[in-house]
Design brief:
Helices cover about 40% and strands about 15% of the residues. With about 350 residues, the protein is of the alpha/beta class. The chain has a seven-stranded parallel sheet with strand order 3-2-1-4-5-6-11, with helices on both faces. Strands 7-10 form a two-stranded parallel ribbon. Helix 1 (about 10-20) crosses helix 8 (about 220-230), helix 3 packs parallel to helix 5 (about 95-115) and helix 9 (about 270-280) packs across helix 11 (about 320-330). It is globular.
Length: about 350
């Protein structure tokens, strides 16, 4: 199978690329290598698979309509995984237009490429942030999600709507995966685990928002990749029983689906920090702060649809995942067991 995978130098994209190559797929990777965080980390991730004989890398931007069209026309992928996006809830408050270019315009170019090349299945990254103002727990794909709290969340909800239009009009099978707080080795430096690890090793205080009362459905990278692969191999079906007078937000009469992909075991932020302290062998200094604009207090994924249809079962406890991240961090940054970064 030939898969076009955007964001292939990113955290999830690089891990998924390795998995697909390992099973014998051909992968055409797209990444713009922007400077949202240190590009050296992206280059290091890419080096793990850049020379594989079944891998082709394209340094182009999703917002470049012609470059994306050319990539589809040249490589003729059978499947597409769209993971490239401008990430981050907090950055979307500072620089909202970056999310329009990448997450809206760029995604439209991917959809059109899939239509023109008659791609068999598009799988794309959505986010738990689409649940926004919802407070009913656990979050279910059968809940309405019309109240996003950030432009990042709104852009991901928009992706789901855009995909539905293409599924309906062009019979393009599309599946959106709402990721819940992905963490692990090779993760993004703007995410909490990376920032907390750096701060603890440097003896600096941790900025802990909402006074540490957050709960997050932390999901280990390997469990995320396993879910993506299972979904990719089975194009989204139509639901012939879908009713317009009682619409189910999680599926459609078109070949369109959305699924939560999470650990389904929310963890208190303070417990998460305690697990990190144990892995590092150091105590953290906490700077307790109020809830930030755009943040939600808690997340909890109902993964029953993914489990029932794909036998998906996350397998990595938070303590194990954090320990693996810390081991990777020390190795990548050459931090000795008793040293600082």
């Amino acid at each position: 199978m030939k898969t076009l995978l955007t964001g292939s130098a990113g955290f999830i994209g690089s891990a998924l690329t390795l998995r697909l190559l390992k099973r014998g797929d051909m992968v055409v990777g797209i990444d713009n290598h922007n400077a949202y965080y240190d590009p050296a980390l992206k280059e290091a991730r890419l080096s793990r698979h850049a020379t594989h004989p079944n891998y082709t890398h394209l340094r182009i931007d999703l917002a470049d309509r012609q470059a994306i069209a050319d990539a589809f026309a040249t490589h003729q992928p059978e499947r597409v995984v769209n993971l490239a996006a401008q990430a981050g809830v907090r950055y979307s408050i500072e620089n909202p237009l970056a999310y329009i270019d990448s997450n809206i315009t760029g995604f439209a170019h991917i959809l059109e490429g899939c239509r023109q090349c008659q791609v068999g299945h598009l799988v794309y990254a959505s986010s738990s942030s689409v649940y926004g103002g919802n407070t009913a727990m656990p979050f279910s794909v059968h809940h309405n999600v019309d109240h996003p709290l950030s432009l990042y969340a709104a852009s991901k909800k928009s992706n789901e709507l855009m995909a539905h239009a293409y599924s309906h009009l062009y019979d393009l099978p599309t599946t959106g995966l709402r990721f819940f707080t992905v963490y692990g080795p090779w993760g993004r430096p703007d995410m909490a685990l990376f920032k907390f690890t750096r701060a603890i090793l440097a003896g600096e205080p941790l900025p802990v928002f909402n006074y540490g009362k957050h709960k997050r459905d932390f999901t280990y990278i390997d469990d995320i990749v396993e879910g993506i692969v299972r979904v990719l191999d089975r194009p989204a079906p139509k639901n012939p029983g879908w009713r317009g007078d009682a619409p189910d937000p999680g599926n459609s009469a078109a070949p369109w689906r959305v699924y939560n992909i999470g650990n389904s075991r929310p963890v208190e932020l303070m417990d998460y920090i305690a697990a990190l302290e144990k892995a590092l062998g150091r105590k953290a200094r906490l700077d307790l702060l109020p809830l930030q604009p755009g943040d939600v207090p808690d997340t909890w994924a109902d993964v029953s649809d993914l489990a029932g249809e794909f036998h998906y079962q996350p397998a990595t406890p938070v303590e194990t995942g954090i320990a693996r991240f810390v081991a990777w961090y020390r190795d990548y940054f050459n931090v000795p067991a008793d040293g600082v970064c």
